[in-house]
UniProtKB/TrEMBL annotation:
Signal sequence extent: none
Species of provenance: Shewanella sediminis (strain HAW-EB3)
InterPro entries found in the cross-reference section: DNA-bd_HTH_TetR-type_CS, Homeodomain-like_sf, HTH-type_TetR-like_transc_reg, HTH_TetR
DNA-binding region: 27-46
Keyword field contains DNA-binding: yes
Name used for this protein in its record: Transcriptional regulator, TetR family
SUPFAM superfamilies reported in the protein's UniProt record: Homeodomain-like
Regions crossing the membrane: none
Residues annotated as domain HTH tetR-type: 4-64
Keyword Manganese: no
């Protein structure tokens, strides 16, 4: 097995163990053992469990952002484009339940340093802030502070995906999809 394969195996194993056992209950030794690598190999790639967690968090967030950015449409109707983006984001969660469970557990957790969360929100997901600002400039969205809006959007996404992951049959129901977007949009819409 080549080094990149070992690194990915470590990441995949850590993802599974962090979700099933929790960050604090998962030791680096258990990750290495489950991944079938020496503990030294794990530390070669990730000097600490915190660095492994941060790398995993940012890698998955980037994967999510890449998928969502690929779905951005510029139809000229921001609300319609936002609904498409919202549904694409939830579809990603439905297609990647383990990764979404990881986000559910760790997005707001003290296990992820605030600097890493800010890097994810303002760097990797910076395009979302730009879309919010565009909506504000067009007079469609309320002029709330951008950072607060971003965190609120994130919280709504986590709540919606939690609901749909717990009730997967409802994701197939158009009225549930539309209601989830209406809740999201109406929280930001200019009244």
């Amino acid at each position: 097995m080549s080094k990149p394969d070992k690194k990915q195996t470590i990441l995949d194993t850590a993802l599974t163990l962090f979700v099933s056992q929790g960050f604090y209950a998962t030791s680096t030794a258990s990750i290495a053992k489950q991944a079938g690598v020496a503990t030294g190999t794990l530390f070669h790639h990730f000097p600490s469990k915190d660095e492994l967690m941060n790398h995993l968090f940012l890698t998955i967030k980037q994967e999510f952002a890449n998928e969502i950015q690929a779905q951005i449409k510029d139809s000229g109707d921001l609300k319609q484009d936002a609904e498409h983006l919202w549904c694409s984001a939830i579809q990603w969660a439905m297609d990647n339940p383990l990764k979404q469970e990881f986000f559910q557990q760790y997005s707001m957790s003290p296990s992820i340093a605030i600097e890493i969360r800010e890097q994810a929100m303002n760097g990797i997901l910076g395009f979302m802030g730009a879309l919010l600002q565009q909506g504000q400039a067009q007079g469609l969205l309320a002029a709330y502070p951008l950072a607060l809006m971003q965190d609120n959007c994130h919280g709504q996404y986590l709540a919606a995906t939690r609901f749909f992951l717990d009730n997967p049959q409802t994701w197939q129901d158009k009225s549930h999809r539309q209601a989830s977007f209406a809740l999201f949009w109406n929280a930001m819409a200019k009244s």
